[in-house]
Every structure is written in structure tokens, then in C-alpha cells.
Amino acid sequence: MNEENKNKRTLPFVSRLAAGITPYTAGEQRNDRKYVKLNTNENPYPPAPAVAEALQRFDPAALRLYPAPDADGLREKIAAAEGVAKENIFCGNGSDEVLALCMPAFFDPDGKGACFADITYSFYPVFCSLYSVPQKIVPLREDFSLDLGAFAAADCQGYLIANPNAPTGMGIPKEEIFAFVSSQKDRLVIVDEAYMDFYGCSAAEGIGRYKNLLVVKTFSKSYSLAGIRCGYAVGDKGLIDALFRVKDCFNSYPLDRVCQTVCAAAVGAREYYAACTKKVVAERERLCAALRERGFTVPESKANFLFAAKKGLDGGTLYQTLRDRGVLVRHWDAPKIADFCRITIGTPAQNDALLCALDDILRTAAEDRARHAAR
Ligand code: PMP
């Protein structure tokens, strides 16, 4: 048991782990149309027409039977798209589940721990706590770039690297990932590529060359299927087998029949998704320039979101004032990033609504300052 759990009070019938753990907080999910929803990095465009067709063709009678336990048909489709064999693919109920299963599969509770950045996907420390995996946390550089040299120096069992990183959006070229992976032959490097399609620099092509590389991807972002819950890992057969071993200790059927059918249809719709991704990337560049023009600091993003802060504007206040104007973004009251808000790239109209709300906020703030100065 770690220190955090030891210090927590006991609750009747509840394990010390459940009583003591701090769970991940997902972004607010609002389905009313009152808000411009730019807070959970969903894709603003609908899934491919092939997905709608697959749903229409889906026979509800099929739901009487359990789904394929290992998602063989879907894994075959993903494998073909990734240029690997089915045995190199593991599917889970969202990439969150794949990442969670990586803990018991690749990290020992009494081992040297999982190494990750201080500013990265905030689910990683939660997964570690749940599985009692020690955490080796390496600070990002001042400019939020990842210091792979410092990662290499960490005494750990393996690494978790989000590329592009969240919530900064910054990316590392695959050549640097490969150099790092080959310098760390005795440690597993898990690259979380949830946002990779908006960068186009996947390390998955290194599978086959590197036995210590596992790439994790999702259908939630570039495939516009956050609602279906599917993610997958690409890696050496030995790593994939380990994931199956832990999955089969946990849930035989993590992917339901609808999910397997829909995702298999989505994998085939390459051109449609490439076009959507292109639109998101173009909007990302437009919005980034517009924010910088307004005096915001915005690290270069390779993802479908921007991380933005403006001197003199408190991040929490910005989040709240945007919310008051009907725009949802994400804010973390955490060290080093409390000034920032993370803004998902929306449609051009949604991004314009954000800029309009920001202009209103900046104008009001300037007027307040002028009033104060005049007193
Ligand atoms: N990795 C990162 C870096 C993410 O931001 C997210 C989305 N919150 C995930 C993984 C998980 O995505 P999903 O479970 O929807 O596949």
C-alpha cells in the first residue's frame, strides 16, 4: 500500500484502496446544445458514412449472443491498416482500458515503476495508484518539451509517453522516439498515440523492429467514435499476449458486438477520415494564429487541441468566463499549468464562437482595467 492510501480513513465495507485512491476526473459531458463543447477533444465531424450504414445493417437479434472475445475480425482489419499481423493487435474498451491493462501486464507493484512526465495525461498516475505501480515522474522542460535524456536517466521498469502530449499538444518526431526506444532495450516504452493522426508521425511502423515498443491508439479522436469506446495496442506478439492474459482475468468480452462492427467499418473509411483530419488541422493552425494575435502563449500543437494562456488572465477565471458565455474548455488547477486552458478544435463556426467569446472577455477586462486606472 502506498503512503497516500495508508493515510486515508477507513470506510465501512470499503477497501483501503477504494477509500484512498483519487480517481481521474473526466471532462464535463453535456449533451444540451446550449454549449459550444470544446472540452474533451472529441472530433467535431460525424463518423464516416460507412459507420452509419453498418449500424443500419446491424441485426439486433445478434445481441443475444456474446461478442467475439478477442475481437478477431476487428483486429484483422486494424492489423491490415497498420501493416502488421492480427497477433500484433490488442483491442480494449477505449484506449483508457488498454492503458490500464498495461499496468498489471508490464509493471510490478514491487518493481522500479512507470516513468512519465509531470505534465501529461492525468490518468497515468491514477492507473499506477490502482495497480500499486511506483511512479517515476520527470519534469517537462520550461517550454513544455519532453526531456528524453532525463527519461533515460530515470530508474524505472518502463515508460509512458503521450505523443502528441496532453494537455500541451506538443509532439516528438518518430525518429526521436525510435532512438529512445533503441537506447532503452531493457525497458518497455509505451507510446500513447491518442492524437497521432493529427500529427501523422506514428511510431507504429517501428513494430517488428523494436520488441520493447508498444503503441496505443484510439477510435475516439480521429475516427469520431468517442461514444463507441474502442482503443488498441500495436506491439510485439509477446506484449500483446501479456495484455490478453490480463484481459482474460478481468473481462472476457470488453468490446460489444456493436462496437466491433462499427469500428471495423470505420477502419475502411480512410479517405473520409483523412479529409476530416485535414479540416481539423487547418482549423488548429487558424485558431492558434488567432490566439497568438490576441496575446496568448500557445505551444505548437500537433493534436486536435490547443493549450493557451495569457499573461494577466487567470486560467480558472478564463475557463469560468468562457463557460458563462456558453463555451466549454478544460482547465486544471495544477502546478505549472494553472494559467492555461485546453481548447479542443471545433468546426470553423465553433472556433469563431470561441474567438468571439474571448474578444468579449478581453474587452471587458480592458474596460475594467481602464475604470480602475481612472479612479
Ligand atoms: N490518451 C490520452 C493522451 C488521452 O487524452 C485520452 C482521452 N482522454 C486517452 C488516452 C483515452 O482515450 P479513449 O479511452 O477514449 O480511447
Short description:
With 375 residues, the protein is an alpha/beta fold. It is built from 13 helices and 11 strands.
Explain this structure to me?
- The strands form 3 sheets. A 7-stranded mixed sheet has the order 2-8-7-6-5-3-4, with helices on both faces.
- The protein folds into 2 domains: 114 residues, Aspartate Aminotransferase, domain 1; 219 residues, 3-Layer(aba) Sandwich (Aspartate Aminotransferase, domain 2).
- It contains 13 helices and 11 strands.
- It starts with a helix and ends with a helix.
- α3 packs antiparallel against α10, α4 runs parallel beside α10 and α5 crosses α9.
- The chain has 375 residues and is α/β, with parallel strands linked by helices.
- The protein is globular and about 70 Å long.
- The N terminus is likely disordered.
- The structure holds 4'-deoxy-4'-aminopyridoxal-5'-phosphate.
- 4'-deoxy-4'-aminopyridoxal-5'-phosphate binds next to α5.
Main attributes of the structure:
375 residues; alpha/beta; Aspartate Aminotransferase, domain 1; Aspartate Aminotransferase, domain 2; seven-stranded mixed sheet; disordered N terminus; binds 4'-deoxy-4'-aminopyridoxal-5'-phosphate
